[in-house]
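hiii, so i know i said id send this last week but things got crazy w the move. better late than never?? heres the sequnce for the chain we talked about at the cafe, plus the structure i predicted for it. fair warning i was half asleep when i ran it
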Amino acid sequence: MCGCYPVAPPQRWLHLSPGQAAPLRYLIHSLFLPSGLLVQSLEYNQPADNYTVCQGDNATLSCYIDEQVTRVAWLNRSNILFAGNDKWSIDPRVRLLTNSPAEFSILVAQVDVWDEGLYTCSFQTQARPHTAQVYLIVHVPARITNISSAVTVNEGSDVNLLCVATGKPEPTVTWRQLRDGFTSEGEYLEITEINRQQAGEYECVTANGVSVADSKRVLITVNYPPTIKDVKDAYPTMGKPALLRCEAMAVPPAEFEWFKDDKQLFGGLEGLQIQNERTRSMLLIDNVTARHYGNYSCLASNKLGVSNASLRLIRPGSLENIAVTGMESPLFLGLLSSAFVTLLFKI
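okay and structure toks below
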């Protein structure tokens, strides 16, 4: 909905909407064509009143007169719109509303920017010709006319976004990152050496107070190589199932490969299953046997790089398991601390 208001509300004689009129401001010298049409030459003594409407609205131009008026006409700049009941304008949007001894009104439907300008009510009395004027201002809601397309870049690159808006009055343009709420004023948004945390949707908002704000969004995708998160060893019992999990953050999403020692593993062989999701891969063993215990590697890769991590499938009760769990026990840590102190005294 357009929210336009008159800049200087008219008072009497001339108005643009019911109940609003403008005072008589001008004197004119007039000539009369053979047809009796008034042709004006203005002597300005005060500026015309301003009246603001929104693009697409209707503007009613009313001139309040009395029985002393013998001729009356509405003009736009030097173009005659209506002279009495006679229509001179070829614009179908312009039509006569009222022609009575007290009022002479016309309507301009669906006002557009080219309708902006000076409108004159020129009328002749027995004493002399007169004129009253109003300047029609057409406001246009802010609209985004051009905006950058979705962007995909590698981490560390520079990004430039553009958002072009039009409107009257001149609209403001603001960029906003939806995730973090970061804002930047102006048509251009420049991001130097972008990182993965700055990826996401950016919204351009334009407004000029005429109507509701207009907005559009641009998605920035930041590519970066895989980074494998913490991985954990597993301690399954023989004859039971086992699971090794490998998670990796990457854009584009990483492709996963599994290895035992130097041998690549494939799902469906030797009781193994491999389940790959967007950010993780799982190696499942249906029935653990002695040959399954050992060292495993997870490899995550995309077009920007490779990352790998080592995992172990450890048999409970084995020397390796005892060594791992023993090193984590309070007793072992206490013995290690005492040995370290003794070593220092010997030194």
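btw The CA atoms of residues 80 and 98 lie 17 Å apart. thought thatd interest u
miss u guys!!
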